[in-house]
Design goal:
Blueprint (H helix, E strand, L loop, with lengths): L26 H31 L1 H6 L33 H17 L9 H20 L4 H25 L6 H26 L4 H6 L3 H25 L9 H4 L16 H10 L1 H21 L12 H21 L9 H10 L23 H14 L11
Length: about 400
């Protein structure tokens, strides 16, 4: 990834006199640096959220034990038929898919809560390596697991990877132009679409969930390559800033693209009262985000597994994967629109997301007469439910950099 397109200002000498600024690099170099930044942070956003999304898409498979220990060559065995006159309205797992959501969210939440307390003391390289190793370990552990508990441990590793990677890579954006944030946002949306679509496509093609997860091990490797490439340029930047004498041995092409850094020790230290004042000013952003996340995951991991249409060409597990893929497609579109349109009233999107929560279906009516086969949900009704994830994903417009 390239650095900023702006020129790098030289440090002041000991007498307080400033030297003339370095000449600006050619326009072609600045444009090349812009696209290197864009592609680099798009890849980082994609790779960082990929394992997180795949685990949510595979939640139904993880909990339903569709892989027999001795036979990994099949996907989606025929579900046990449910009588049409059964009083059970749902086809549920003994453990809700919300369990996968908790394993995928809680570790990330804990990391984000503890990160301000001292994560900045840990160098970037170990954080990037840990994130990549956890992502690869999550795919391997879930792929070879035969119990729900072990699979959930693999989901926890994916959550650690996503949370640690997010606080690491987003902190790197402070060394680059502001435009990289929108590219990171688009990359996280792309992770949702490509992650859900790849899992859906490979399993629909007949690949077992185990082999599907193992085929995705290249994504953590790509994340390590992209992250360490960004750190390499950042090391050149810091070295040239704090040690001007090393500029002669540094790469001139890299130095010409580096953004100016503030002098060491120039950071401000806010008091507790000042930090509380800043926090109160952020509440009008925090409250809509909380509302969006609550409605989003309540529907995605709490209700989607209950939206099951029997006697169709799609099994229950396949329908769940389609719901996730359609939702992630909408997420990608909304997060990629950050550079096209800006919506100031984020509370409106949060309210829209809450309004998409479907009402509970009516209770079955008891009958004394011999039961006859009842008509199933017609295709238009099923189409409405398949369109529902697109409406749900519009709330992600208010969370451009979040998972």
């Amino acid at each position: 990834m390239g650095g900023c397109a702006g020129s790098r200002q030289r440090l002041s000498d000991s007498e307080g006199e400033e030297t003339d600024p370095a000449p600006r690099p050619p326009l072609q170099d600045r444009q090349g640096a812009h696209w290197k930044n864009a592609v680099g942070f798009w890849l980082l956003g994609l790779c960082n959220n990929f394992s997180y999304v795949v685990m949510l898409s595979a939640a139904h498979d993880i909990l339903s034990h569709q892989r027999a220990p001795g036979n990994q060559s099949h996907v989606d065995p025929d579900p046990t038929p449910t009588p049409h006159n059964s009083t059970s309205r749902f086809d549920c797992n003994s453990v809700s898919t919300a369990a996968v959501l908790l394993a995928d969210i809680l570790p990330t939440l804990i990391i984000k809560l503890l990160a301000p307390l001292g994560l900045h003391l840990l160098p970037y390289s170990p954080r990037v390596l840990t994130s990549g190793i956890c992502a690869a370990g999550s795919f391997i552990l879930v792929a070879f697991s035969h119990s729900v508990a072990t699979s959930l441990c693999g989901v926890v590793l994916a959550s650690i990877s996503s949370g640690l990677g997010e606080v690491t890579f987003l902190s790197l954006t402070s060394f680059y132009p502001r435009t990289v944030i929108s590219w990171w946002s688009s990359g996280t949306g792309g992770a949702g679409l490509l992650g859900a679509l790849s899992y859906l496509g490979l399993t629909q093609a007949g690949l077992s969930p185990q082999h599907t997860l193992l085929s995705m091990l290249g994504i953590p490797a790509l994340m390590l390559a992209s992250g360490l490439c960004a750190l390499t340029l950042l090391c050149w930047l810091i070295l040239a800033h704090h040690h001007p004498f090393s500029e002669s041995c540094a790469n001139p092409a890299l130095l010409s693209l580096c953004p100016p850094l503030p002098p060491a020790g120039s950071g401000s230290h806010l008091s507790l009262q000042e930090r509380w004042t800043v926090f109160k000013g952020l509440l009008h952003y925090i409250v809509p985000l909380v509302l969006v996340y609550f409605a989003e995951y309540f529907i995605n991991q709490g209700l989607f597994e209950l939206l099951f249409f029997r006697n169709t060409f799609l099994s229950h597990a396949q329908q769940y994967r389609w719901y996730q893929m359609l939702y992630q497609a909408g997420v990608f579109a909304s997060r990629s629109s950050l550079r096209c349109c800006h919506i100031r009233h984020t509370w409106a999107l949060a309210l829209l997301q809450v309004l998409t929560v479907p009402p509970p279906p009516p209770a079955p009516r008891p009958t004394l007469a011999p039961s006859f086969p009842q008509p199933h949900a017609p295709l238009p009704q099923q189409g409405v439910f398949f369109a529902h994830p697109h409406i749900l994903s519009t709330g992600n417009k208010s969370q451009p950099g979040c998972v």
